[in-house]
């Protein structure tokens, strides 16, 4: 199970969805869901200084969804000092090398739980809302990859859309 799916499972659990329902929705055995939840409980909690965002419930039907607005928002977000600071922290942690192949060239910093999926699933509509979303700024949700390894991930670009929660999945 990839890390992004684990985070989605945790978020669903935290918004009150019982494990057996999560298992049904993700088409996974319930034992896998419970294992994912246990492994995340062991993960280090974010420092108290970090802001936390309130995950939207997965029962919410997405209304007023504006793909262009969110795309523009992501572009704007990538130029903010907060974003550049997060990027620097991840690069430093990974010692300025691709985490997959160790290359030092053409490095990109990627959100493991993809940024577009966060923006979509948490219904973030402004830079202010993004600033309040701890998951975007969690250093452990970042990884340094070279352009080639990045393009090979199962969440690269539009491929991240499979992690978007859609209105169809809600009911
Ligand atoms: Zn690489």
TrEMBL record:
<dbReference type="InterPro" id="IPR003615">
    <property type="entry name" value="HNH_nuc"/>
</dbReference>
<protein>
    <recommendedName>
        <fullName>HNH nuclease domain-containing protein</fullName>
    </recommendedName>
</protein>
<feature type="domain" description="HNH nuclease">
    <location>
        <begin position="85"/>
        <end position="151"/>
    </location>
</feature>
């Amino acid at each position: 199970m990839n890390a992004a799916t684990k985070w989605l499972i945790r978020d669903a659990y935290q918004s009150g969805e019982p494990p057996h329902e999560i298992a049904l929705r993700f088409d996974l055995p319930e034992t896998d869901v419970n294992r994912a939840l246990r492994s995340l409980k062991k993960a280090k909690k974010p420092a108290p200084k970090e802001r936390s965002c309130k995950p939207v419930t997965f029962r919410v039907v997405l209304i007023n969804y504006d793909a262009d607005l969110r795309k523009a928002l992501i572009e704007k977000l990538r130029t903010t000092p907060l974003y550049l600071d997060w990027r620097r922290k991840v690069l430093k942690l990974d010692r300025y090398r691709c985490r997959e192949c160790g290359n030092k060239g053409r490095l990109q910093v990627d959100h493991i739980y993809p940024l577009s999926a966060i923006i979509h699933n948490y219904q973030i509509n402004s830079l202010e809302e993004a600033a309040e979303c701890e998951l975007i700024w969690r250093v452990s949700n970042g990884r340094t990859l070279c352009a080639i390894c990045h393009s090979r991930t199962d969440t690269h670009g539009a491929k991240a859309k499979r992690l978007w929660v859609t209105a169809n999945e809600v009911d």
